[in-house]
Each structure stands twice: as structure tokens, then as C-alpha cells.
Specification:
386 residues, single chain, L-amino peptidase D-ALA esterase/amidase, seven-stranded mixed sheet, globular
Length: 386
């Protein structure tokens, strides 16, 4: 099935957690960057004991389209940054070689990368019949995290029809977050992770540009929220088993995918610098980049498009060096908030073999936040967190 709703749980700003100094866009999402579209397909079936290759399935696919047109014909300037390379993403090297994105970006689970890339190739060929015949081949871009604790990952349950559903359902506006799409089976710092997004609008005096971020959170660390040591206080943290006589299971290292979009005119070099700043936003939440963490960041610009049939020369105005600092700042803030949204919106999920990853308890979270004076307001809170 596609489109599991997480509407009943709050986002960070809905409970008084305002990270940073810049304001978000209308939807506080990557789709605040004009033209960017997001779609999910959530694959959930079966329960109980794992039968490898059969289920239970707790996985999915998420599609990020830089614009609603034909991305192969009208490519987006792009770059990628690898913080820690323990991952199986597809298409990263060619993005950095050519400086363009020529397909939507798809996110899924580790062992499903091949099937998802294959479906993305088919989808692109259907729309560009000359691929590999009278013009170049296509570079599919697919990112992943390991959701095997909850999901029958050997089953590779994300198939062509699910990829097509995510691509065709992609839309602007509000973005569904939490345990949906590619975030269905992920975990983050001891709680349920998932898909999260946020945006920042740089003040007009600094360019007036918009930064949007979408994360697929599945990493280890010690959760910090607006400076409050939530993970430590609530007893969820990496290496915890070494501090309580081995009474708890070690939290998995995991991975993270970050997609950054902007309407600022940026070239490949600048976009790679932008992507790299996502690591600082992750660090604010407690991420530390473990040995087994696959941490891949992709940034693209919607300010102009690169035609497939390039003229002999191309020219475009780009943001000046000093002016890019505000965009760096915005990426850090939006990445931090996107991670928080991915966790706060996610529901508890029971997966294969009865494995459970609990959603963070909002009441417990707020009790820590109040103790450390880390809430921006503390009045008229919704009844489910009173």
C-alpha cells in the first residue's frame, strides 16, 4: 500500500521547538523550493516470524523530483557529498563528475537499491526513447538505509509498481513524514526514525533564497533537541550497554540520506559545499558518523536547468562566495529540524519477528525540554502532550 498517514503526531514547531534563527517557508518542507515535488509509496504486509524473501515487509520508497518536467532533458545542477561511505547508493559519482542530476532522487532500503534503480531506468526510458540509442545512457540516483531490523530486507519488497507510484504521486505542498515511504522501517538514536523535512528562507538582505531539506533518518547517537540532552536523560544512547551492566541491547549504527534543494543559483562546486553542511545539522541532533554509517548528501538547485543537448558554451550567474554563508547556515538549521520531524512524526512500528521500535514519547520529551529550558513557548499545548 502507498501513503500511510502519520497525521496524528506533531512536528517540532507544533510543540514549541524552534531550532535556529531563520524562518521556515510556507510548508516548512523541501517543497518550499519552487517546483520541488515529493512522493511516497509505503510497503507494509505480513506480521510475526521472519520468512526470508516472503515477509513481513516494513519498507518503501520515496521520490524527490527537482521539477515536474523531464529531468533527463532539463537537468538540475547538482553535487553530492559523502560523509562516511558505508553505503550502497547509486549515481553519486556521475553527479560529481558532470555536475547535474538527470533523474529524480529515489530513497529506499539497502538491498532494494538495484530493483529501484532498474525501475527508475525503465521510467526514464519510457519518457526518453532515445536513451542509449541515439543519445547517452541515463544515470539513476538512488539512496538507501538498512531497515532490516523491522523489515524482511532479503525480500526486496519494493518493486517497479511501487517506484512508479512514488514518482507519479509526487507533489508540491505538504510532505508526509515519519514512518512512510523509505522511512517505514528505519530507526534513529534508539527510537523510530523515518522521513522528515524542513525549510529556511534566507532574509532578503542576504539574498532571499529558500533552502529545503529532506532526510531519511536511520542513525545512531545521543539525541539532542534544541540543546537539551534528551537521549541521555531518557536512557537511549549509543554504547548504553557499557554503562548499565549490559542490560540493554546496543543501538545500531545505521545511516542517513540527506537531500538539499535551493532556488539559489549555484554551480556544482558551491552545491557540494552546501551538501557538506548537512553534516553539521545532523551533529546538532546527536549524530556522530559511526564506522558502519552510510551518510550521503545530495544538493541541487532549481534556479536554472541544463539542457540535455548542450550548446558549445553555457553561462549562468551564481551566488558570490561571501553570500553563500547564509545558505550554509540555513542548511544546518533545516537539516536539524528535518531530523526532529522525522522522529516526532513517526509512529511505533512492529516488524519482523515481533521486533518493535518505539516512537519517542512526546510527553517524556517535553519533560526534559522544560527541565533544560529548551522550549520556545510552553502554553496551550495540544491535549495529547499535556
Amino acid at each position: 500500500m502507498c501513503g500511510v498517514s502519520e497525521a496524528s503526531r506533531p512536528r517540532a514547531r507544533e510543540i514549541g521547538i524552534h531550532t535556529g534563527i531563520f524562518s521556515p517557508g510556507e510548508f516548512n518542507a523541501i517543497t518550499d523550493v519552487d517546483g520541488v515535488m515529493v512522493g511516497h509509496c509505503t510497503v507494509v504486509h505480513g506480521e510475526g516470524e521472519l520468512v526470508p524473501g516472503k515477509g513481513p515487509a516494513r519498507t518503501g520508497v520515496t521520490a524527490i523530483r527537482p521539477h515536474g518536467g523531464n529531468v533527463f532533458r532539463e537537468k538540475a545542477p547538482a553535487a553530492a557529498y559523502v560523509f562516511n561511505g558505508y553505503g550502497k547508493s547509486v549515481g553519486i559519482h556521475q553527479i560529481n563528475e558532470t555536475g547535474v542530476l538527470e533523474t529524480p532522487i529515489l530513497l529506499t532500503n539497502t538491498l532494494n537499491v538495484g530493483l529501484v534503480a532498474d525501475a527508475l531506468i525503465e521510467w526514464s526510458v519510457e519518457r526518453n526513447g532515445d536513451i542509449g540509442i541515439s543519445t547517452s545512457t541515463v544515470n539513476p540516483v538512488v539512496g538507501e538505509v538498512n531497515d532490516g531490523y523491522l523489515n524482511d530486507i532479503q525480500g526486496r519488497h519494493v518493486r517497479k509498481e511501487h517506484v512508479y507510484d512514488a514518482l507519479e504521486s509526487a507533489k508540491t505542498g505538504l510532505v508526509e513524514e515519519g514512518a512512510v515511504g523509505a522511512g517505514t522501517g528505519s530507526s534513529c538514536m534508539g527510537w523510530k526514525g523515518g522521513i522528515g523535512t524542513a525549510s529556511r528562507v534566507v532574509p532578503n538582505s542576504l539574498g532571499g533564497y529558500t533552502i529545503g531539506v529532506l532526510v531519511q533518518s536511520n542513525f545512531g547517537g545521543v539525541l539532542t533537541v534544541n540543546g537539551a540532552p534528551v537521549g541521555r536523560e531518557l536512557g537511549h544512547y549509543t554504547y548504553q550497554e557499557h554503562f548499565d551492566n549490559g542490560s540493554r541491547e546496543q543501538l545500531d549504527d545505521g545511516s542517513v540520506m540527506v537531500v538539499v534543494a535551493s532556488d539559489a543559483p549555484l554551480d556544482q562546486r558551491q552545491l557540494r559545499r552546501l551538501a557538506a553542511r548537512a553534516s553539521l545539522g545532523l551533529a546538532r541532533t546527536g549524530f556522530y558518523g559511526s564506522n558502519g554509517s552510510g551518510d550521503f548528501f545530495i544538493a541541487f538547485s532549481t534556479a536554472f536547468r541544463v539542457p540535455h543537448s548542450e550548446p558549445a558554451t553555457l553561462s549562468a550567474e551564481v551566488v558570490a562566495g561571501d553570500a553563500i554563508s547564509a545558505l550554509f547556515f540555513a542548511v544546518v538549521e533545516a537539516t536539524e529540524e528535518a531530523v526532529l520531524n522525522s522522529m516526532f512524526k513517526a509512529r511505533t512500528v512492529v516488524g519482523r519477528d515481533g521486533n518493535v521500535v518505539e516512537a519517542i514519547d512526546i510527553g517524556d520529551l517535553l519533560s526534559v525540554m522544560r527541565r533544560y529550558n529548551s522550549l520556545d513557548w510552553d502554553k496551550s499545548l495540544p491535549p495529547y502532550i499535556s
